[in-house]
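Checklist before submission:
- one chain only
- standard amino acids only
- sequence pasted in full

Submission:
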Amino acid sequence: MSKDVEASIIAMIASAGEIEPGEITRDTELAELEIDSLVLTEIVMDIEDEYDIEIDLNTAEAWESLKTVGDIVDMVKQLVAAKT
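Returned file contents:
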């Protein structure tokens, strides 16, 4: 499941940011992708819908705790695991 989550999130980020998925890895910083707060919010909402989870972050907190794609993947994995 973990690779599926990672691939799914990378695909969502790539789609929202109009970036080729192959250019994104776990270590890719969101700032490198030029993802602004509005796009980040859209990505978070898509992730919530996809995994039926609630990510309790306002935009300022999101930028503080979510620096890389891996940070997002890890957070989603934790929330999904806590749900089961």
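Reviewer check: The chain is about 65% helix and 0% strand.
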